[in-house]
């Protein structure tokens, strides 16, 4: 009986232990499943967050690349450097710009602004020691003398004096004879006429006679433009010796290709540059005016002449070759820059745009026509851009050096 009771107690304990074990296993397994679910959700959330963050990182990476590229291309030029080289920046704005026709031309003396001095007697010509082409002369100044000392016909001054003295004696005698009616009034008048002619001729020579012969003087002040004879050459009466020009007014003669003939009627002014200077002259600033333009091409060329007249400011040389920019119809809303703001590298053109106080960027542009001073910009910049117009060469050197000071940074 005791033995049976022991067996029953053992079986009951075994059942209780078995139930406790199963419950314990379920409790252990359920949290585990929950952990696995939580872990899965965590992984899903992680993947989602990671993907989202990755997309953002890619976007940020692109922006960083663009910023990085801008910084790489940026030229750092400090305010101190800019001040030292006189760097200037202008804000781009559209405005009126004339159509331009380029042509070759020449500077000429204006008509009536020069005189030709001719020989007044036969003889050997000698220029004054300081008289050379380009020298300034005063009105009445002697530029040369003509001597006939060793010429067969003799000294014209001496001849004129002898002729005058002889005519004077005959005239005084005729005055007495006509009173006594020994000679007729007609004969007296002929004698008087010979006397007056001889007197005028002698006075003309006597007023210009010098130690070395007859002096040649200039009637106007100006400068000696040309000498047509050499020192010591024989000259005859009326032969051109030299030209004196005042150069107060000059002419600009442009030779325009005939293909622009229809556009000539719209030309109102011009800019030009002479071969010996880089300066651009504007007829609008020289009281210039259009004189005429040809109605046909030349017989030996296919060019039409266009002629202007303007004031000479003192440094323009007649006879010089000129590069001419004929200004035609005005056009509105055109973006232009000073030519000096544009640089060229291997056939491409660039300008330097200011990004901030010390940052600049080299930008390629496409050029249009230019009037010698400003050039049309077809593409590359827009109104409102700030472009370097002075100190471009120094900035170009800085760009080629590509040196960025340590610790310098920008945020754009």
From TrEMBL:
Belongs to the membrane fusion protein (MFP) (TC 8.A.1) family. Residues 26-62 have a biased composition (Basic and acidic residues). It comes from Tannerella forsythia. Residues 333-392 form the Multidrug resistance protein MdtA-like C-terminal permuted SH3 domain. Residues 24-67 are annotated as: Disordered. Residues 1-18 form the signal peptide. The lineage of its organism: Bacteria, Pseudomonadati, Bacteroidota, Bacteroidia, Bacteroidales. Gene3D superfamilies: 2.40.30.170, 2.40.420.20, 2.40.50.100, Helix hairpin bin. GO terms for cellular component: cell envelope; membrane. It comes from the Bacteria. This is Efflux RND transporter periplasmic adaptor subunit. One of its GO terms (biological process) is copper ion export. Keywords: Signal, Transport. PANTHER family: CATION EFFLUX SYSTEM PROTEIN CUSB (PTHR30097), SLR6042 PROTEIN (PTHR30097:SF4). One of its GO terms (molecular function) is transmembrane transporter activity. Coiled coil: none annotated.
